[in-house]
What we know:
Two copies of one chain form a homodimer. The first copy, chain A, folds into two domains: 2-76, Glutaredoxin (3-Layer(aba) Sandwich), CATH 3.40.30.10; 87-202, Up-down Bundle (Glutathione S-transferase Yfyf (Class Pi), Chain A, domain 2). The longest helix of chain A is centred in the middle third of the chain and has 29 residues, at 87-115. In chain A, helix 1 (10-22) links the parallel strand 1 and strand 2 (28-31). Chain A has a four-stranded mixed β-sheet with strand order 2-1-3-4, with helices on one face. The first copy, chain A, is of the alpha+beta class. Chain A has helices at 10-22, 41-46, 66-76, 87-115, 127-147, 161-175, 186-196; strands at 2-6, 28-31, 54-56, 62-64. The model of chain A has no long low-confidence stretch (mean pLDDT 96).
Amino acid sequence: MKLYDLKGAPNPRRVKIFLAEKRIKVPIETLDLEAGAHLTPGFLARNPLGKLPVLELDDGTVLCESVAICRYFEEMVPEPPLFGRSTLERAQVEMWNRRMEHELLLPVIDVFVHTHPLWVGRREQIAAWGEAQRKLLVERMRWLDRELEGKEFIGVQRYDMADITAQVALLTARGVARLPIPDDHKNLTRWWASVSKRPTARA
Amino acid sequence: MKLYDLKGAPNPRRVKIFLAEKRIKVPIETLDLEAGAHLTPGFLARNPLGKLPVLELDDGTVLCESVAICRYFEEMVPEPPLFGRSTLERAQVEMWNRRMEHELLLPVIDVFVHTHPLWVGRREQIAAWGEAQRKLLVERMRWLDRELEGKEFIGVQRYDMADITAQVALLTARGVARLPIPDDHKNLTRWWASVSKRPTARA
């Protein structure tokens, strides 16, 4: 089994934090975007879309998409549960994880790709789109702050996949989008301080 | 229990096809986007993001996000399985469903929102982004045609959630984005003919 990782990229990071929470060790090969390692024929044979992470099983079966990889490990190693413990909890974690993807992670990746110099010449950059997504991200951080009123975690009452996605999204927002959590977002700041203290936060 | 639907919208359509495949009947209230029914205080109390579909359980618990709603019903009514039958299959359906969302459904919704007259004055329209997503969609339809070589269905060897997402995305592409499946995409055309014949295709 091998996990293909992309240096500095948010989605593979989600899988690495997930694996660390489960105490699962998987051999990792880290590819370098700037060297174009995700576009070599060898890698494209594994994932023609050129996206990371990719998990290769021992029989050669390839799993793409971070959450598909995490769900595979959730069933192989159920404890601690990171997708919920009951039917309702599992639906709620799915809901909150998707909200964290659509309201935070996808917008911040758009801000990065459409406004950061790293992507000049690699992708068509549409600055107006990057700016629109930056505005959305600011609004959604305020929304999430309200949602966290009286809640310790984002999904159910336990650290789970939705927290991991939000954590990686906000780390990326602070880094490449220069959008740290505003000081007056008290609930989000408290949640951030708590999840950042976890030993797996640096996975 | 009640499902809030949005007239003509692709995401609620996914849930309706899913429920029809499972032969589950749920009372449905259809909101009208043009009347702004998704932005009333009553609806925003259920989902502050103003997005549809929303499932309200009998105890008032609210589930948002199409796939969270579908996963809830998958556990309540396991047959026929629409998210896979084994650990590996469930990971593969998750992977293919996400690919269908990110490579087809999200791009086609962007084309719609950023280029269609219906959205003038409702959302900031960035025409260049709509055009970039249209180009991506054309490329991804070609990619999916190649992936379907020798395959009857998109995910595993059975009609499942990934097929539902692709079906709704391509229906939307043909409709609002004026991008029908090109005739030389033989595999995609064959798959489309097959899924369109299902009695649930008009759900």
